[in-house]
């Protein structure tokens, strides 16, 4: 191991949910940086056991849901707090618990008392570590030296065993727990809401779906001896932070569920799922008082999430119908109202000519978070006539004239998006956007670029065998120079606008691919007949409904 | 639309030189009080074109008499926001964030082109012959 625990360090174990694995580090780093915690100066990431490339059964850290962060013990209580409750008495102290709780993918944060490749190593590490002594002192329980509400002797506790899905019976769990009996915790054991919840984790290899690669039991629940004998990847022991306010499953309970898409009154085919939106607002570091912008606002699902983070929100779209919504009670504003958020600002404008709708003297936005149109569910449009010669609109028709729009090539959508971001973001402000792609997309050369924007992170999320999407985050690092506009736009695609073709019209490409598969014709026919039947059933039901109301009206007359 | 957004919008139909600030023809207005967010207002002020904001407030005031809204100073040094007192911040907040133009028009000062505002949504889309 590169660096061992010393008496001067304070270790945190971050446990992620085994989901959106490629987003783990990007989201955590964004939140760490947003809270002004400096990796290198304030803290270091330590390698977890069996993650080094030279170890015989190494699994790289990036594929595993655990990270260890080391802080200096001196900084706990002076620069950082790890207490359950938000303490506003000292605004200079950064509360690690409430700060990290914003990460959508963090399951829990544990004050790490000891760890090692196997249970025995972990026990030894706890014995030689400072966790217990420090806990007795209680210094780290409260930020600015305020008296601990409960003394060490009276704190209730329990030890939870977490084996990542492998099943161990009560006796086996008791056996593991008993290895930590030497701690001789004086308080009462309490299963429901204890003051301290200790956690022992036995980490094993997981597949991408979060199941054990070497399951301990077969599907018939019989023990598989060779898998049972496999040593763990790592063992960790510690005390769960934020236990009394957040519990072990920080993201559990109502934290995510209350924002679920299903509960929104107004939805469209392009609404972004709430979990990914929440991650995106973290990647973009949206915070209270930020001004957040979505130039392709659609039904406002991303904008709503930025508002949940406390941002003042502005959304634009070329399509007036989505901005207005379905009715008085089903529109973007009603969704905001549902969550008690201040109404967003909505403007119908065209991002292709942003600079002609908005004055561009000053960088305005702290964050731009968006899902641009790629022609998958909604084809992109921009202002202008499809004709070669544009006909003039007569003055008497001006006020109710319906402006013409024409198709908007994905290469231009992206070039304009990056340029608008470079122009309107504050220095250090972030652009986070989603880009779908199939396997032929090479993120090293196919992603759009801008001279004023630095690439911060790219997170890949597989959707189907061939289709996936990336969430890209960029940061403004250079002042925008209007005189270089054409140059900026020309430099968007290193490999030429063909890169954009790879992300455009994926729906059509998927259909083309499906047509080549055997049995496509039969399946398509069956689907067509089914659709027809449903449609007719609906029509019939509607006819009958009108007929019965007509009857009712007749009776009234 | 709030006046904050009005401050950033301009008209740019073909042939317009400035197109800023847009004049406001108000048909319906709405006032909805919200909690004052001082850091937000301070963050915003340096980005604001104060003269345009002040003139917009003057245009809307006659339509808002029923709400008895405060008057704002005709000029503020937005480069030094730290000296602005709480009371002024509250007044600025009211006009920037709590007053909504529900129905009306935004009018280009150069060409007279009217951009309609309906259900609080300004329609800034240019017609095909204006691009």
From TrEMBL, chain A:
Residues 546-557 have a biased composition (Low complexity). Residues 263-388 form the Ribosomal RNA large subunit methyltransferase K/L-like methyltransferase domain. One of its GO terms (biological process) is methylation. It comes from Cyclotella atomus. Residues 526-542 have a biased composition (Basic residues). Its EC number is 2.1.1.214. Residues 100-209 form the tRNA (guanine(10)-N(2))-methyltransferase TRMT11 N-terminal domain. Keywords: Cytoplasm, Methyltransferase, RNA-binding, S-adenosyl-L-methionine, Transferase, tRNA processing, tRNA-binding. It is found in: Cytoplasm. Residues 524-557 are annotated as: Disordered. It holds the Pfam family Tmrp11_N. Belongs to the class I-like SAM-binding methyltransferase superfamily. TRM11 methyltransferase family. GO terms for molecular function: tRNA (guanine(10)-N2)-methyltransferase activity; tRNA binding. This is tRNA (guanine(10)-N(2))-methyltransferase. It comes from the Eukaryota. Transmembrane segments: none annotated.
Automatic annotation (TrEMBL), chain B:
Belongs to the TRM112 family. This is Multifunctional methyltransferase subunit TRM112-like protein. It comes from the Eukaryota. Transmembrane segments: none annotated. PANTHER family: MULTIFUNCTIONAL METHYLTRANSFERASE SUBUNIT TRM112-LIKE PROTEIN, UPF0315 PROTEIN-RELATED. It holds the Pfam family Trm112p.
């Amino acid at each position: 191991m590169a660096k061992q625990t010393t008496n001067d360090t304070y270790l945190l174990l971050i446990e992620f949910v085994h989901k959106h694995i490629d987003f783990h580090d990007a989201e955590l780093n964004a939140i760490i940086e947003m809270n002004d915690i400096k990796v290198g100066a304030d803290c270091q990431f330590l390698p977890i056991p069996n993650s080094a490339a030279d170890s015989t059964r190494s699994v790289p850290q990036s594929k595993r849901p655990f990270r260890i962060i080391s802080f200096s013990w001196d900084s706990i209580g002076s620069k950082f707090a790890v207490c359950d409750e938000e303490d506003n008495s000292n605004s200079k102290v950064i509360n690690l618990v409430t700060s990290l709780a914003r990460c959508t993918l963090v399951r829990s944060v544990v004050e790490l008392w000891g760890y090692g490749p196997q249970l025995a190593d972990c026990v030894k590490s706890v014995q030689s570590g400072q966790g217990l002594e420090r806990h007795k002192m209680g210094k780290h329980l409260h930020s600015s030296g305020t008296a601990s509400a409960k003394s060490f002797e009276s704190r209730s506790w329990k030890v939870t065993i977490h084996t990542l899905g492998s099943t161990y019976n009560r006796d086996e769990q008791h056996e593991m727990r008993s290895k930590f009996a030497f701690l001789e915790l004086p308080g009462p054991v309490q299963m429901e809401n204890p003051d301290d919840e200790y956690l022992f984790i036995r980490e094993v290899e997981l597949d991408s779906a979060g199941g054990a690669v070497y399951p301990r039991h077969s599907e018939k629940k019989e023990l598989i001896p060779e898998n049972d004998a496999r040593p763990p990847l790592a063992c960790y022991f510690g005390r769960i932070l934020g236990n009394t306010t957040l519990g072990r499953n920080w993201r559990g309970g109502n934290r995510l569920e209350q924002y679920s898409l299903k509960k929104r009154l107004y939805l469209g085919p392009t609404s972004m799922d709430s979990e990914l939106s929440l991650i995106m607002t973290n990647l973009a570091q949206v915070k209270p008082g930020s001004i957040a912008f979505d130039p392709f606002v659609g039904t406002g699902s991303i904008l709503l999430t930025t508002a949940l983070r406390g941002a003042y929100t502005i959304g634009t779209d070329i399509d007036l119908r989505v901005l207005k919504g379905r009715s008085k009670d089903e529109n973007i504003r009603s969704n905001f109202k549902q969550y008690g958020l201040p109404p967003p600002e909505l403007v119908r404008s065209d991002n292709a000519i942003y600079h002609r709708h908005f004055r561009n003297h000053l960088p305005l936005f702290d964050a731009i978070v968006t899902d641009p149109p790629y022609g998958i569910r909604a084809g992109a449009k921009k202002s202008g006539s499809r004709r070669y010669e544009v006909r003039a609109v007569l003055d008497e028709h001006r006020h109710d004239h319906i402006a013409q729009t024409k198709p908007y090539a994905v290469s231009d959508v992206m070039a304009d998006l990056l340029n608008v971001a470079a122009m309107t973001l504050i220095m250090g402000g972030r652009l986070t956007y989603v880009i779908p792609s199939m396997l032929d997309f090479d993120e090293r050369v196919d992603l759009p670029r801008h001279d004023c924007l630095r690439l911060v992170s790219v997170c890949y999320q597989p959707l189907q065998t061939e289709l996936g999407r990336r969430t890209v985050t960029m940061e403004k690092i250079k002042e925008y120079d209007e005189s270089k506009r054409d140059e900026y736009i020309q430099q968007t695609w290193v490999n030429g606008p063909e890169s954009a073709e790879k992300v455009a019209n994926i729906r059509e490409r998927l259909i083309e691919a499906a047509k080549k598969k055997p049995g496509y014709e039969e399946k398509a026919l069956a689907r067509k007949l089914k659709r027809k039947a449903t449609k007719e059933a609906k029509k019939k039901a509607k006819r009958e409904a009108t007929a019965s109301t007509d009857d009712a009206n007749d009776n009234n007359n | 639309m709030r006046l904050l957004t009005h401050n950033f919008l301009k008209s740019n139909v073909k042939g317009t030189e400035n197109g800023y600030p847009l004049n406001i023809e108000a048909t319906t207005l709405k006032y909805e009080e919200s909690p004052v967010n001082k850091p937000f207002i301070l963050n915003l002020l340096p980005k604001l074109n104060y003269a345009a904001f002040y003139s917009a407030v003057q245009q809307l005031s006659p339509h808002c008499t029923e709400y008895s809204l405060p008057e704002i100073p005709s000029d503020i040094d937005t480069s030094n926001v730290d000296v602005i007192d709480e009371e002024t911040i509250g007044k600025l907040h009211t006009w920037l964030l709590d007053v909504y133009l529900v129905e009306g028009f935004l009018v280009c000062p150069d060409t007279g082109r009217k951009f309609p505002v309906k259900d609080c949504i300004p329609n800034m889309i240019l017609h095909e012959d204006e691009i």
